């Protein structure tokens, strides 16, 4: 067996083109891509070997066989349980229908009583898993409850009527199910309904298989969508990285041109603001003064500017002289102060002489 599986593996590994697809189809539940298998060839070979021993769900062949046998046994027991359970529920439904219709027939009363007694006996009868020495409920035993069974005559009569009544109840319920499944068939005749009812099981089985197929197809589409989404995100990430590279590469050139345009824009805007300020100043002058006044102000301004220049030049010459005087030291400063005092006295005496002369005349 090992040699045959090894040969099959070698054959599979020989087809490198289809190996990746075979592995991906053998393990659909694994989140793998063809790029992962190409980057990890040893792991790909390991998965190819495992595919010879396990199925798509990951179970080995012997375990899968045992699981199928256990599943068949479980289904058989489940069908048997469902058979008795459906019969029991159908009988209960018949009793409930009689109660709702308020039709107290001896048949239904006997059947209801039999069902209650059977249920109580089942509750009181210890199973193989319980302790037989455990005290029963209220000290009752199944024999005590069996005494409450109806008379044998009524029970026999009820058993004779059960098949006919049960058949009628199941038929009405099946027709109701048919009307629910296909509301358009409700207005048809009873014979046609019965004929279509015989094909309802096959139709339901067909719809069930179709739903299972659609569910499986939906699962495959989900896996495919996940792979495509992952591939799309990978390509989108590459595009974003490329876009970032282009932006970083061309940002300096574009930024230089943009800064130049901004500088020209701000220069033009600044010039426009200056011209607007000048215009506002001229408008204020025109609104405040007449043209003759403005011309006179200009002449006064020119004269004052000339005098200001002359004063500045005189100030500079005096400062130069003062600086040259300061070089001579403190002795020259005392002589300069004495000179200033004498000059002031001379000016005062000159003024007094002029005034005296003017007064004598």
TrEMBL record:
Alphabetical UniProt keywords: Coiled coil
Protein name: HAUS augmin-like complex subunit 4
Gene assigned in the entry: haus4
Entry-linked Pfam families: HAUS4
GO CC terms: HAUS complex
GO biological process: centrosome cycle; spindle assembly
GO terms of molecular function: microtubule minus-end binding
Coiled coil listed as a keyword: yes
InterPro entries (alphabetical): HAUS4, HAUS4_met
Coiled-coil spans in chain: 294-321
Species assigned in the record: Gouania willdenowi (Blunt-snouted clingfish)
Coiled coil among keywords: yes
Superkingdom of the source species: Eukaryota
């Amino acid at each position: 067996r090992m040699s045959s599986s090894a040969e099959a593996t070698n054959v599979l590994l020989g087809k490198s083109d289809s190996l990746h697809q075979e592995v991906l189809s053998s393990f659909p539940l694994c989140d793998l891509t063809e790029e992962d298998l190409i980057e990890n060839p040893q792991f790909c070979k390991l998965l190819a070997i495992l595919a010879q021993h396990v199925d798509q769900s990951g179970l080995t062949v012997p375990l899968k066989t045992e699981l199928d046998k256990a599943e068949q046994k479980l289904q058989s027991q489940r069908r048997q349980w469902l058979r008795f359970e459906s019969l029991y529920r159908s009988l209960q439904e018949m009793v409930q229908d009689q109660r709702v219709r308020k039709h107290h027939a001896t048949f239904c009363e006997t059947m209801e009583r039999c069902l209650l007694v059977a249920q109580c006996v089942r509750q009181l009868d210890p199973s193989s898993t319980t302790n037989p020495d455990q005290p029963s409920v209220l000290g009752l035993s199944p024999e005590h409850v069996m005494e409450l069974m109806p008379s044998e005559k009524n029970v026999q009569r009820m058993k004779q009527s059960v098949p006919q009544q049960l058949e009628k109840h199941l038929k009405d319920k099946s027709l109701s199910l048919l009307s629910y499944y296909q509301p358009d068939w409700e207005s048809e005749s009873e014979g046609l309904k019965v004929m279509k009812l015989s094909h309802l099981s096959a139709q339901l089985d067909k719809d069930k298989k179709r739903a299972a197929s659609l569910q499986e197809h939906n699962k495959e589409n989900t896996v495919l969508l996940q792979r495509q989404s992952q591939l799309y995100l990978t390509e989108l990430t590459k595009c974003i990285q490329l876009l970032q590279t282009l932006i970083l590469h061309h940002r300096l050139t574009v930024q230089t041109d943009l800064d130049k345009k901004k500088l020209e824009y701000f220069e033009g805007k600044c010039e426009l603001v200056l011209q607007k300020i000048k215009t506002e100043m001229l408008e204020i002058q025109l609104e405040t003064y007449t043209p003759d006044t403005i011309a006179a102000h200009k002449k006064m301004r020119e004269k004052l500017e000339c005098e200001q220049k002359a004063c500045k030049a005189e100030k500079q010459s005096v400062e130069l002289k003062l600086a040259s005087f300061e070089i001579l030291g403190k002795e020259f400063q005392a002589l300069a102060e004495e000179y200033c005092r004498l000059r002031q006295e001379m000016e005062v005496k000159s003024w007094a002489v002029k005034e005296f002369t003017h007064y004598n005349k």
